[in-house]
């Protein structure tokens, strides 16, 4: 595909997203939050029909073959509208599946979510659980939206293993999250598993990390836009508060951080698409996630402050952006973890030689 | 290669990589070794050999059109030219005539002004300085009060300019003067050319925080210059000067200054044995990330230029970010230097271990070319559309 075709495809993706990810009306988001499973299967099927899960999957596997630049554009739109459907997790899962599971998953008929984290901040310490006689024993944590899955694809010592969500030997504990979703803790006790692939964990997780950074970029941009609107219209001391220099300068600094995040995410997507799985690409992904996590927290905190009292109410939508940032900033590794990973993947001397 | 080999008819006909190599070779072969990465702004006597080499090669004025003796580079080629010069650590010459006056004369000057002044800039006969700021007209430049009154065929100039870089080295000054006090302050300003040896011009150097005398005050006491030394129309000086703030503003946001500082931070950290300190390492890594993200942001704007687009007010983001990053790097340098960070001279006499000099230099970056606070005012109105 030429650069022109890709940018055309990206505009189409953004436009198609607007139909589902309605950023000016968060009514659906409010209705779903703190419910189980916290998202809507009809919407999910619509998303699948639009090919969202298959964007970066190769064409021969039934995907669109567009790469991370396109995925990031989509994730940004979803972030702007705080979409709760687990697109990031499901996209990670399909990369681990065999060809025979794909059609049902890509159509939205069946939802398979990945379970690979055994600990908090799992990226660097994840250890797969052993398989004995076709069954697994152990615990997997921090599975977003687990209560909505039909099956899980689990990181085992023998590769990725498929587990039925309704298996009687699988216990699911649900802990709700600030944004209205939840994390599932899966406890396997002799639970039957069928191995579906030996795909390495690192690549798909890095792509999910970058997708999360792009989602956060959407959160950041929308929180800034909403705050700017508020500053233009809220009148105190006889004038719009956006005419006060202290608030103007703060907004400029936040917008600068947002611009850096945008550049960082775009750069990482370009580098990943150019040389997927290279050290350079892993470093760029960590750089983007570190920036996005920090900026999302900074921007949404300041957004609350600049909204004043109304920003502290649950009724006002700006708070939903802070809650989303609280959940997504640490997901797939927080800023400190990714700074460390950046330094590992891109040691100082490598840069000096470049 | 001899210098004639670098005199091409059409640089834009070269591919970007070829042009980049050409610039690289040129610098390697012809840039004087003793003034690479100078720790301060060079005076004319130090920069003259390099200026004359550039003049001889026809490489002095990358942005000027060919017909006026410039290189006639496209925006994309200018980016490469600047990038290679900065990477190499090429010394900046007294270049106000080339960077600012030349483009203004080309666009607004009379035929006679162009014919007289442009060749003399290119030959090094005229070195120019810029007379904009005044003691009471800094960020609020349009409130300037240095006055020019027409008396017969001459303008009579009275007043004072300040922060005039390398005024003592200059043969001429181009300046903004008040020619009308009645209307809006921006609409009574004209653009005037004054020889520095005219009777009534006095230069008083000012030492900066780094104890360098690169800028001066310039006093004008009944200085008389011919009527024809005014450029463009009377009272249109502000508009002309502003119109020239084109895409060159991107260069104030170039990542190279911060990149150079970061390389010196690394050197210093090695020298003081801090590289394995986890606290230092995390902060150092953060600065590396900041630089990489700034480079990505800079490249976005550069890409827009390469596609032939124009840059909006958001180019101010680059200056704002680059200068604050440059400062953060030098602040960490000073911190890890410990007591040595209070020394007046470079550590162990090593020019590359001079956190104090870089720290002090960096103080200026958020002030010149539009202070950070002014940049924020511009962005708030023009980009964020705040009231």
Largest sheet of chain A: 4 strands, mixed
Largest sheet of chain B: 4 strands, mixed
> Quick one: CATH superfamily of the largest domain in chain B?
Butyryl-CoA Dehydrogenase, subunit A, domain 3
Please tell me the overall pLDDT of chain A: 93
Number of helices, where a helix is a run of at least 4 consecutive DSSP H or I residues of chain A: 12
Identify the strand order in the major beta sheet of chain B: 1-4-5-8
Low-confidence stretches of chain A: none
Beginning-to-end CA distance, first to last residue of chain B: 58 Å
How much strand of chain B?
Answer: 5-15%
Q: In which range does the helix fraction of chain B lie? A: 40-55%
Task: Spell out the CATH superfamily of the largest domain in chain A.
Answer: Butyryl-CoA Dehydrogenase, subunit A, domain 3
- Net shape of chain A: globular
Instruction: Give the largest interface pair and sizes.
Output: A-B, 34 and 30 residues
Amino- and carboxy-terminal Cα gap of chain A: 28 Å
- Binned, the helix content of chain A reads 40-55%
Broad structural category of chain B: alpha+beta
Residue ranges of chain B: pLDDT <50 for 5 or more in a row? Answer: none
Protein name (chain B): Acyl-CoA dehydrogenase
Keywords (chain B): FAD, Flavoprotein, Oxidoreductase
Domain Acyl-CoA oxidase/dehydrogenase middle (chain B): 129-223
Domain Acyl-CoA dehydrogenase/oxidase C-terminal (chain B): 235-384
């Amino acid at each position: 595909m030429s650069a022109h075709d890709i940018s055309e495809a990206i505009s189409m993706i953004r436009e198609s997203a607007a139909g589902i990810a309605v950023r000016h009306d968060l009514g659906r988001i409010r209705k779903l939050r703190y419910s189980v499973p916290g998202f809507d299967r009809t919407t999910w099927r619509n998303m699948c029909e639009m090919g969202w899960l298959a964007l970066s999957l190769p064409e021969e596997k039934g995907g669109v073959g567009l790469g991370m630049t396109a995925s990031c554009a989509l994730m940004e739109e979803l972030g702007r509208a705080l979409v709760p459907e687990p697109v990031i997790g499901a996209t990670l899962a399909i990369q681990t599946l065999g060809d025979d599971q794909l059609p049902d998953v890509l159509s939205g008929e069946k939802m398979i979510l990945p379970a690979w984290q055994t600990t908090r901040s799992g990226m660097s310490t994840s250890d797969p659980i052993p398989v004995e006689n076709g069954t697994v024993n152990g615990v997997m944590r921090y599975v977003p939206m687990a209560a909505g899955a039909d099956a899980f694809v689990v990181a085992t010592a023998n590769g990725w293993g498929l587990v039925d969500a309704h298996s009687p030997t699988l216990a699911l504990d649900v802990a709700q999250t600030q944004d209205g979703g939840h994390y599932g803790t899966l406890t396997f006790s002799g639970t039957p598993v069928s191995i579906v692939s030996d795909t390495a964990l690192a690549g798909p997780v890095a792509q999910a990390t970058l997708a999360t950074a792009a989602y956060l970029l959407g959160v950041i941009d929308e929180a800034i836009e909403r705050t700017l609107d508020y500053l233009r219209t809220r009148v105190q001391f006889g004038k719009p508060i956006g005419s006060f220099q202290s608030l103007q300068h703060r907004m400029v600094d936040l917008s600068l951080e947002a611009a850096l995040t945008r550049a960082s995410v775009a750069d990482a997507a370009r580098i990943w698409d150019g040389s997927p799985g290279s050290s350079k690409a892993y470093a760029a992904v960590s750089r983007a996630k570190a920036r996005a996590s920090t900026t999302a927290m900074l921007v949404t905190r300041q957004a609350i402050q600049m909204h004043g009292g109304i920003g502290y109410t649950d009724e006002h939508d700006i708070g939903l952006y802070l809650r989303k940032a609280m959940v997504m900033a640490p997901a797939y590794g927080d800023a400190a973890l990714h700074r460390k990973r950046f330094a590992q993947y891109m040691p100082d001397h490598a840069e000096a030689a470049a | 290669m001899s210098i004639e080999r670098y005199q091409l008819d059409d640089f834009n006909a070269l591919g970007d990589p070829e042009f980049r190599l050409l610039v690289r070779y040129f610098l390697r072969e012809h840039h004087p070794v003793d003034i690479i990465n100078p720790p301060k702004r060079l005076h004319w006597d130090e920069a003259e050999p390099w200026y004359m080499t550039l003049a001889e090669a026809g490489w002095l004025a990358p942005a000027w059109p060919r017909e006026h003796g410039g290189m006639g580079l496209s925006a994309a080629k200018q980016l490469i030219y600047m990038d290679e010069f900065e990477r190499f650590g090429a010394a900046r010459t007294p270049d106000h005539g080339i960077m600012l006056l030349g483009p203004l004369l080309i666009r607004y000057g009379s035929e006679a002004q162009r014919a007289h002044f442009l060749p003399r800039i290119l030959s090094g006969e005229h070195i120019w300085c810029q007379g904009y700021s005044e003691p009471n007209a800094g960020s609020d430049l349009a409130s300037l009060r240095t006055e020019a009154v027409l008396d017969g065929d001459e303008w009579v100039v009275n007043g004072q300019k300040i922060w005039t870089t390398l005024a003592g080295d200059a043969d001429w000054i181009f300046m903004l003067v008040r020619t009308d006090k009645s209307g809006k302050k921006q609409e009574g300003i004209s653009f005037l050319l004054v020889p520095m040896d005219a009777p009534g011009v006095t230069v008083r150097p000012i030492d900066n925080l780094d104890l360098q005398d690169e800028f001066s005050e310039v006093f004008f006491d009944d200085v008389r210059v011919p009527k024809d030394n005014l450029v463009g129309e009377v009272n249109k000086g502000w508009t002309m000067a502003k119109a020239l703030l084109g895409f060159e503003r991107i260069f104030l946001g170039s990542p190279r200054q911060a990149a150079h500082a970061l390389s010196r931070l690394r050197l210093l950290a090695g020298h003081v044995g801090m590289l394995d300190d986890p606290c230092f390492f995390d902060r150092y890594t953060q600065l590396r990330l900041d630089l990489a993200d700034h480079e990505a942001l800079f490249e976005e704007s550069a890409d827009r230029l390469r596609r032939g687009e124009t840059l909006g007010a958001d180019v101010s983001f680059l200056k704002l970010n680059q200068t604050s990053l440059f400062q953060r790097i030098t602040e960490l340098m000073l911190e890890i230097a410990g007591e040595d960070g209070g020394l007046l001279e470079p550590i162990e006499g090593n020019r590359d271990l001079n956190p104090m000099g870089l720290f002090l230099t960096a103080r200026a970056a958020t002030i010149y070319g539009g202070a950070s606070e002014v940049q924020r005012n511009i962005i708030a109105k023009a980009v964020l559309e705040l009231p």
